[in-house]
Amino acid sequence: MLAIVAPGQGAQTPGFLTPWLEIPGLADRLSAWSDLVGLDLIAYGTTAGAEEIRDTAVAQPLLVAAALAAAEALGAAPAVVAGHSVGEFAAAALAGVLTPEEALTLVRERGQAMAKAAAVTATGMTAVLGGDEAEVLAALDRHGLTPANVNGAGQIVAGGTLEQLEAFAADPPARARLRPLQVAGAFHTVHMAPAVDALRAAADGLAPAGPRVTLLSNADGAAVDDGAEFLRRLVAQVAGPVRWDACMAAMTALGVTTMIELAPGGTLTGLARRGMPGITTVALKTPDDLNAAREVL
């Protein structure tokens, strides 16, 4: 059984789109989507520096556009789709809940609203690698932090104010390594609450369709079979934790044997190799990876 997954913010690197533009028609598609979102996605994906594409308002449309373009180039028909954080918008489009244009329009609003919310208070995120999960969660609670991403495979991402994160760094849980992340704010925490209202307003009036394939939700790993409910979850997820561990558990229970991660791939397949032992994984980093993906189908 094939699952196709889309990565979230932080997966982007300078120039990652450059080799993809060699695929006939892909540049035209990205150009049209650039007009739609009011950003030069091609420039941001090829010549922009790390700081430019770290901007939440840029990174989110760029990642969703890249995932959708890579899915089109792959041309596979998955049984299951899922996305991590903003990757859920690409997953919604792949499942037919939203059109690619609707997904990108909403993501543009999401990125702008989250960037605005992040500017209110100095916040950030830190990856916690290893340690006992119960002890890690207790340490986060002690410092007022939110487990914003529970990624499985021994990885939890904490979100909160910079002061809370500094105190946490001085008092880490046993046997855990801390890695501050280069993000603009504490995503998927209460600090993003203002962005929820903005995204809800942007989504008003859409008529989402029912998913054509099994579509998993970040909220709890559940397969959601109603388009309106999935859209509601997409909106609420801005300020709610990402349970990628639950998504991996759901894929395992469904009998997923192969996972292909759309561009810029690598993060989710890495988690799957540790959290879903025995699964076949392919990360689409460049078009050269398309052949390897097709070979496992």
Give a concise summary:
Helices cover 46% and strands 15% of the residues. With 297 residues, it is α/β, with parallel strands linked by helices. Strands 7-2-1-8-9 form a 5-stranded parallel beta sheet, sandwiched between helices. Strands 4-5-3-6 form a 4-stranded antiparallel beta sheet.
Strand % is: 15-25%
The name of the CATH superfamily of the largest domain reads Malonyl-Coenzyme A Acyl Carrier Protein, domain 2
What is the share of helical residues? 40-55%
- What is the string of helix and strand elements? EHHHHEHHEHEEHEHEHHEHEH
- Put simply, the count of helices is 13
Mean pLDDT: 97
User: Care to count the β-strands?
Assistant: 9
Strand arrangement, major sheet: 7-2-1-8-9
Total separate domains: 2
First and last CA, distance: 9 Å
Radius of gyration: 18 Å
**What ranges have pLDDT less than 50 throughout 5 or more consecutive residues?**
none
Which structural class do you get from the secondary structure elements?
alpha/beta
Second rung of CATH, namely the architecture of the largest domain: 3-Layer(aba) Sandwich
Structure description:
The chain has a five-stranded parallel β-sheet, with helices on both faces. The longest helix has 19 residues, at 56-74. The termini are close together. The chain folds into two domains: 2-119 and 189-296, Malonyl-Coenzyme A Acyl Carrier Protein, domain 2; 123-180, Malonyl-CoA ACP transacylase, ACP-binding (Alpha-Beta Plaits, 2-Layer Sandwich). It is 46% helix and 15% strand. Strand 4 (146-152) and strand 5 (155-161) form a beta hairpin. The model has no long low-confidence stretch (mean pLDDT 97). By secondary structure, it is of the alpha/beta class. The protein has 13 helices and nine strands. It is globular and about 50 Å long.
